[in-house]
Amino acid sequence: MSKPESHRYCVGYALEPKKVHSVILESLVDHANQRGIDLIQIDRTRSLIEQGRFDCIIHKLYSEDWKKQLDEFSSTYPEAVIIDRPQLIERLHNRVSMLEVVNQISIPLENDTVGSPKQWVIKESKTLDDANAIEELGLIFPLIAKPLEANGGPNSHNLCLVFDQSGIKKLSIPVVLQEFVNHGGVIFKIYVAGQHITCVKRKSLPDIPEEKQKTMTGKLPFSRVSSLAVRNDSHNEEDDTAQNNVEKAEMPPDSLIEGLAKSLKEAMGLNLFNVDLIRDASDPTRYLVIDVNYFPGYAKLPNYVPFFTNFLWDIVHSKTA
Ligand SMILES: Nc1ncnc2c1ncn2[C@@H]1O[C@H](COP(=O)(O)OP(=O)(O)OP(=O)(O)O)[C@@H](O)[C@H]1O
Ligand SMILES: O=P(O)(O)O[C@H]1[C@H](O)[C@@H](O)[C@H](OP(=O)(O)O)[C@@H](OP(=O)(O)O)[C@H]1O
Ligand SMILES: [Mg+2]
Ligand SMILES: [Mg+2]
């Protein structure tokens, strides 16, 4: 075991209890401790300033009161690093602004392209009921309907596949209708923590064959497919095939993974996020970003403990973010 470092740094974390449970594991606390970093839970029942000096604060809380407390804390301790600024995180709480940035960056790539699927936003319920208005939008079925807000609220992961106009009527507004792209049932999840980047493969929604696209009608709800894939221990033939597809899938080129992660980090000014990326089954040079999440489930990564500790170490040692 390495020698504990003599100078100690203090990193405060402010997260919902569920997130503390899923991300701040004992193994992380112990490892960080060995590297001179004390991970301290911020007490949400007391004022932040009262809790003294932190070298760095990591957080995933969005209330106005919390934002005010962070501002006060920064004024009192200007040298402390806040990961990340709430105003910058907000872009990821809306499924339109989260993908806009993908189309503003440019990544030097030889053959591949990175973009986002076509999407339409519907904000008024009368539009859902108006067959003419829907037709005029020129939607391309099948679609994925996603709540516009992606702020961790109870409905923000309630998605559904929509096969024709009849499926649109029963959606809740505001909703984003996104072109469904067949991608071989495999999703690439790029996790970013400051300058540390890693990519894993996961099971995704299966392809919808063309014959099926013509016969399916209405809508089909689903929720949290890629998380299910992490937890799934059932064994049926369909799952085995899906798992097989994941294992066989070739990773995107390193230059694409790094280029995309670094450009997005720069453009958004954020340190802690992941990117969901798919590869078009009918054009394997076409990559599409479908989702960007703030402070995702890092503990699902196989190298999570050193990965996250290295990030914290960089921050407290450079004191710049
Ligand atoms: N445009 C698309 N084409 C094909 N499949 C898609 C598309 N968008 C999403 N999916 C599928 O739906 C799943 C959930 O979509 P998305 O990641 O946008 O939702 P989310 O609720 O924000 O997920 P997360 O739990 O990662 O935050 C993806 O993992 C993928 O399997
Ligand atoms: O709880 P909200 O704010 O909705 O955010 C979720 C993200 O949307 C998911 O992407 C995270 O899971 P992944 O790390 O598997 O993407 C998921 O990670 P979790 O499994 O630690 O909850 C959450 O960060
Ligand atoms: Mg996702
Ligand atoms: Mg998401």
TrEMBL record:
| A GO term, aspect molecular function | inositol-3,4,6-trisphosphate 1-kinase activity
Query: Top enzyme class of this protein?
Result: transferase
The record lists Mg(2+) 2 as bound by: 291, 293
Q: Does the keyword ATP-binding apply?
A: yes
Q: Which reaction does it catalyse?
A: 1D-myo-inositol 3,4,5,6-tetrakisphosphate + ATP = 1D-myo-inositol 1,3,4,5,6-pentakisphosphate + ADP + H(+); 1D-myo-inositol 1,3,4-trisphosphate + ATP = 1D-myo-inositol 1,3,4,6-tetrakisphosphate + ADP + H(+); 1D-myo-inositol 1,3,4-trisphosphate + ATP = 1D-myo-inositol 1,3,4,5-tetrakisphosphate + ADP + H(+); 1D-myo-inositol 3,4,6-trisphosphate + ATP = 1D-myo-inositol 1,3,4,6-tetrakisphosphate + ADP + H(+)
Q: Which Pfam families match?
A: Ins134_P3_kin (PF05770), Ins134_P3_kin_N (PF17927)
Q: Where is the Inositol-tetrakisphosphate 1-kinase N-terminal domain?
A: 11-89
Give the EC number.
2.7.1.134
Q: Which Gene3D superfamilies match?
A: 3.30.1490.220, 3.40.50.11370, ATP-grasp fold, B domain (3.30.470.20)
Record text on cofactor binding? Binds 2 magnesium ions per subunit.
Needed cofactors, names only, are:
Mg(2+)
Asked if the record carries the keyword Lyase, the reply is no
Question: Which residues take part in binding Mg(2+) 1?
Answer: 276, 291
Q: Which InterPro entries match?
A: Inositol_tetrakis-P_1-kinase, InsP(3)kin_ATP-grasp, ITPK1_N
A single GO BP annotation from the record? inositol trisphosphate metabolic process
Binding-site residues, ATP: 95, 146, 178-189, 204
Q: Which UniProt keywords apply?
A: ATP-binding, Kinase, Magnesium, Metal-binding, Nucleotide-binding, Transferase
* Family in the record: Belongs to the ITPK1 family.
The record's note on quaternary structure and interaction partners says:
Monomer.
Function summary: Kinase that can phosphorylate various inositol polyphosphate such as Ins(3,4,5,6)P4 or Ins(1,3,4)P3.
Q: What is this protein called?
A: Inositol-tetrakisphosphate 1-kinase
